[in-house]
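User: Okay, second chain of the day. Same drill as before: sequence in, structure tokens out.
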Amino acid sequence: MFHSSYEWEGEIQKDSEVLMVIKSRTSRLDDLTKYVRENHPYQVCEVISTPIQHGNEPYLKWLNDIVPEK
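Assistant: Same drill. Structure tokens below.
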């Protein structure tokens, strides 16, 4: 857990937050974003993606095998 400071509706907010890393596929990002938006307490929740360009091949194979395409 970490502390986050941000501006919301013209005021500085300070909250405790948990940073989550969710392993998925680009083709599943819309569904994942929808789920987070429906279950997150904030009106505007952070969902971002980072493309994988390189990595440990056995790990990338496992990720490919375990997360189905949409």
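The chain is about 30% helix and 20% strand.

User: Thanks, on to the next one.
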